[in-house]
Specification:
The chain has 129 residues and is mainly alpha-helical. 54% of the residues lie in helices and 0% in strands.
């Protein structure tokens, strides 16, 4: 009985922490990739080994705002949310490339195109967790 109660408390605490991490996040309804960009296909699709590099890049470039698991820190997006995962690879790539300065998301256009696609692949893995 004590073990079940302790487990329930731990699960509730973990859930509340996750909710609090990105509680301030509101999706920007005006931040949408143009149709042409959203239709762009990921040239690394079908190459799951490329996602490993994406994870390293994500940890270096993105985790300080989005968290190690992509759950969103500060007011950054929770990248695991269905509203994020439902976007096309091309749309995510466009958002990584251009950023959203109005919401504090920097542009990562300085990264080579291949690296940005790797980050998109890692974001897909985050959504699968």
């Amino acid at each position: 009985m004590k073990t079940a109660r302790l487990t329930a408390i731990i699960l509730l605490s973990a859930t509340l922490c996750l909710l609090a991490e990105s509680a301030g996040y509101q999706q920007d309804p005006n931040w949408k990739a143009p149709a042409e960009a959203a239709a762009k296909r990921n040239p690394l699709a079908g190459k799951p080994q490329a996602a490993a590099g994406g994870k390293k890049l994500f940890q270096r470039e993105c985790a300080q705002c989005h968290g190690d698991e992509g759950s969103g820190l500060k007011k950054a997006a929770d990248l695991q949310l269905p509203m994020v995962q439902a976007q096309s690879d091309g749309a995510l790539f466009w958002k990584i490339t251009n950023g959203n300065p109005d919401r504090g998301m920097p542009s990562f256009s300085k990264l080579p195109e291949n690296r940005r696609w790797q980050i998109v692949m890692h974001m897909r893995e985050l959504g699968a967790n």
